[in-house]
Amino acid sequence: xxxxxxxxxxxxxxxxxxxxxxxxxxxxxxxxxxxxxxxxxxxxxxxxxxxxxxxxxxxxxxxxxxxxxxxxxxxxxxxxxxxxxxxxxxxxxxxxxxxxxxxxxxxxxxxxxxxxxxxxxxxxxxxxxxxxxxxxxxxxxxxxxxxxxxxxxxxxxxxxxxxxxxxx
Amino acid sequence: xxxxxxxxxxxxxxxxxxxxxxxxxxxxxxxxxxxxxxxxxxxxxxxxxxxxxxxxxxxxxxxxxxxxxxxxxxxxxxxxxxxxxxxxxxxxxxxxxxxxxxxxxxxxxxxxxxxxxxxxxxxxxxxxxxxxxxxxxxxxxxxxxxxxxxxxxxxxxxxxxxxxxxxxxxxxxxxxxxxxxxxxxxxxxxxxxxxxxxxxxxxxxxxxxxxxxxxxxxxxxxxxxxxxxxxxxxxxxxxxxxxxxxxxxxxxxxxxxxxxxxxxxxxxxxxxxxxxxxxxxxxxxxxxxxxxxxxxxxxxxxxxxxxxxxxxxxxxxxxxxxxxxxxxxxxxxxxxxxxxxxxxxxxxxxxxxxxxxxxxxxxxx
Lengths: 168, 365
Fold this sequence. Notes:
The structure holds 2 protein chains of 2 kinds. Chain A is an alpha+beta fold. Chain A has one domain (about 1-160). Helix content of chain A is about 15%, strand content about 25%. Chain A contains 4 helices and 7 strands. Chain A has helices spanning about 1-5, 10-15, 20-25, 40-45; strands at about 30, 85, 95-100, 110-115, 120-130, 140-150, 155-160. The radius of gyration of chain A is 15 Å and the shape is globular. Chain A starts with a helix and ends in an 8-residue tail after the last strand. Chain B has 2 domains: about 5-120 and about 255-360, 3-Layer(bba) Sandwich (FAD/NAD(P)-binding domain); about 125-250, 3-Layer(bba) Sandwich (FAD/NAD(P)-binding domain). Chain B has a 5-stranded parallel sheet with strand order 3-2-1-7-20. In chain B, helix 1 packs parallel to helix 7 (about 305-320) and helix 7 (about 305-320) packs antiparallel against helix 8. At the A-B interface, helix 1 and helix 4 of A face helix 4 and helix 5 of B.
């Protein structure tokens, strides 16, 4: 149970997962925000109008996956680091997961890392496709991982293999 | 004796916002803080803030003082006077403030209006061994790491899964310090669940219904015994777990720092939902003493976003009382609705309940 463990339940994740049809069309943002808290920066981050206007600042963000073009501007704007961009159309075997990653040292491009799930457990091997750390991201770097396609909705962090690790 | 129009005690988010609001009205403000830099606890908040985009959400806490000070410099035009390294020691019947500047000079200040924004202090937890070196408050750990760049140790047991416990755990991981576990006495995580998810995927276990029984070690902490709690918060026999850690970090809540308010003699009430004894005040953040206002954690333990809005209200009315009353009603309406909105959701329920008890039953902001 999310409130006891900090791990979202599969049913909760299912509710916010875009349709297979949408996944096939290309990158799309997935907002894993399951608690009504007073927070609204995501809606101002979206330039496509895909994140609907809040009636109340405590509303959960509602994203129109058809309007979302997967640009990823919202990823580093979410104080909860709860937004990911998934591109299930990347290749036959692989999908992309763009995730916020605020640990140093950052992984390098083409580095092989371990994809980690919401419980902190290893899921699969993953390849770093891109690392963005521009000024606009304001110290929330965004790492793009290529993972086996069936794992795009599971991989939510990474662990570097060997080399320096942040506290684990 | 210095005689500013308004004196604000405490330069954290509430005090800085109060100062900005008051100088915007045209008043002259002296802001007194014991630290060498303004910002209060913001100076170590390296994470992005939640809340309203209007109140600096998605901005890192460490960047907020700079933004407020830039606005104060621009709009204060010589009417904003920060007094740093200065601890306020007393507030007397005749409205005189006694302060200690840099531990060598006594200052007497007689403002026309005073805003107390002294924040809160951390609570302690009683358990055997809690006096061993290596037992820290979460605030101290955050200061060591994020202000001075010093690691508190190598492996940490975090006690408390409120927002502070969760965020400090995250920042420990960022600093390369292992967090063995976060334990929480309550059956549920108290902090925002997105924070919990963030530390969980970093591999930190969160153990709800768990508490610390004792800390042990020869000269400093070498480990902790923890145990599970049943639904009545009683230790479950045989559930002890030995954790080898060299740091125990306590994040078990905050108490309003109300000493100056007691001394001033304004009325206070014990409201557990708001953090303990808090001053009675009206919707203008005015205490039972006409010239004394409050804002932020000293008035009610809450998020920085609400503290900043309270500051704006206190600053607005302290200035308005002195005759700087331009657009006062319009601004008050906008600040109040902002505050109501921040407290409207399920996470604001405790605050709403506490405020309604403070006001003798009527639900009010």
